[in-house]
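User: structure tokens for this one?
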Amino acid sequence: MSTLTELLRRATADEAHAVMRTPLALRLAKGALERSDYVRLLSCLQALYAELEWALMWNRAHPMVGPLCLPELWRNELLQDDLRALLGPGWYASTPRQHAAPYVERLGLLCDEAPGLLAAHAWVLYATPLPGAGQTGTGLARALGLRGNTGTVFLRHATHLDGEAYRAHLLDTLDRLPLDGRGRAALADEARFAVRGVHTLFEALGRSLTPVHAERREGSRLGGWLPRALIPARGMS
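Assistant:
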């Protein structure tokens, strides 16, 4: 029998690929987001992580949830730090997060009615390569005129401890959960729901992306973005 994490990876492969192909994810991978788009993304992610981490702590006495309470992996405070750096001390009142509402509501429901299924969301949000995960943040920082780690701590996954070791511990803990076939299937279904939720969020945010102020030259050998001064004026041959 395959491990639980292998089952979750197979169950969500198509949805995960769809997330990575959204316009927002592609822009993020290039470090080409405008500040307003980046703030909207961080705001929605902060709402998700805050709700998940609160739900995990609230249910830490639950036998399936307690072992997954690993504050070393938590992201809410990192995202708050980034938003505070970008928007100032009043960041919370300035951040739009309505697109995260359906996912947040799901987490709240599970917190009250089916806390064991929070394990699927912990796997998705802490142990899978979400768009932007593993970036140095340098390209985006340069594009937004940020200095050092300011505003990009979440992307860099900065932590005072070894994040990779804790992610490995989370995966091992998931694989050791005492689940029967029905329990494994329920977690696989919930993981699909979680990745679809991330996909829906990225698609919604992608519909309001700021237009890129450059044009891509089709067939260019460099395959990059042309400097504005080199783009021919309309009507010129």
